[in-house]
Design goal:
Helix content is 53%, strand content 13%. It is built from eleven helices and nine strands.
């Protein structure tokens, strides 16, 4: 195996790179900050003078920097110095149109580029359990698969260039919209005189059992359910219970003078979101 290069040793990047230190073939790293570089050197990685040296010595170069501008800056140094057959994996979360633009630039230098954003945060990076969503050609993905498997617990080839970024953005829409809903629930709970810390413990406990929002994400389409679809009965029950509880929560919020716009939107959007169009069945007791 050849060495893997890693540029960008921030909070997540350093932990990701550390997972590659013991890999056969070795690890070559670069960052403008001296402290994480010293830590990776002490762990057994080799250190490059700059990203151009990385590009000239490895077959796979992982890039984990802050934003689109920094990714472009790194590639401006990498592409002219790249060895034949180099694959560049951009782990940064960038704008949806940027991966295709960068892949086109890279191809002019004989370099393949994949977008490979990650989900799981510093904790997932530290224990190698990240989800890594990869967009790019099959040949480039094949180069990445083994090293990525050391950094992630779930490596998904999402599709052509840009698909990894689009999947990450969809995943994070759910993440941060859920945070907004959690904040709304906390406002309601606080107005009702409840302990918010205990509520948080209950939410994390039960999400660990039920799977949280991802529990409904098993279908391969967002289209309305067809007649006879086996999910119909399950989702009708989910909607019946959900609409009942949402109505009660909205009624409580009205009594307490708390604005709950997401709850009102959920009341009208839950059924269609589940692919249902018929009126909900009467709720069954839990």
């Amino acid at each position: 195996m050849s060495a893997v290069g890693f540029a960008g040793l921030g909070n997540i990047g350093k932990a990701m790179a550390t997972r590659l230190v013991d890999r056969p073939g070795g690890l070559l790293v670069f960052d403008i900050a001296s402290e994480p570089v010293a830590q990776l050197r002490a762990a057994g990685a080799k250190v490059a003078r700059d990203v151009a040296e990385l590009a000239a010595q490895v077959d796979l170069l992982c890039v984990m920097v802050r934003d689109d501008d920094q990714v472009r800056s790194v590639l401006a140094e990498v592409l002219p110095a790249a060895r034949d057959g180099l694959v560049v994996a951009v782990h940064s979360t960038i704008a949806p149109g940027t991966p295709a633009e960068l892949a086109e630039q890279a191809a002019e230098h004989g370099v393949a580029l994949v977008d490979a954003p990650v989900s799981g945060g510093p904790m997932g990076a530290a224990d190698g359990s990240l989800a890594i969503m990869v967009g790019g050609p099959e040949t480039a993905f094949a180069t990445c698969a083994e090293p990525f498997g050391r950094m992630g617990g779930q490596v998904v080839h999402a599709g052509p260039i840009g698909a990894g970024t689009r999947m990450k953005l969809a995943r994070n829409l759910l993440h941060f919209a859920s945070f907004t809903a959690a904040a709304e629930a906390q406002r309601l709970a606080e107005a009702a005189g409840l302990d918010l810390v205990e509520l948080g413990r209950v939410v994390r406990h039960t999400d660990g059992i039920t799977g949280g929002p991802g529990a409904i994400m098993h279908r391969d389409t967002a289209a309305p359910l067809a007649d006879g679809d086996p999910w119909a009965g399950i989702f009708e029950h989910v909607r019946a219970l959900g609409e009942k509880d949402l109505r009660f929560a909205i009624e409580l919020a009205r009594e307490l003078g708390v604005d709950v716009p997401l709850a009102r939107h959920a009341l009208t959007g839950l059924g269609p979101g589940l692919g249902l169009s018929a009126p909900p069945a009467p709720p069954r007791e839990q």
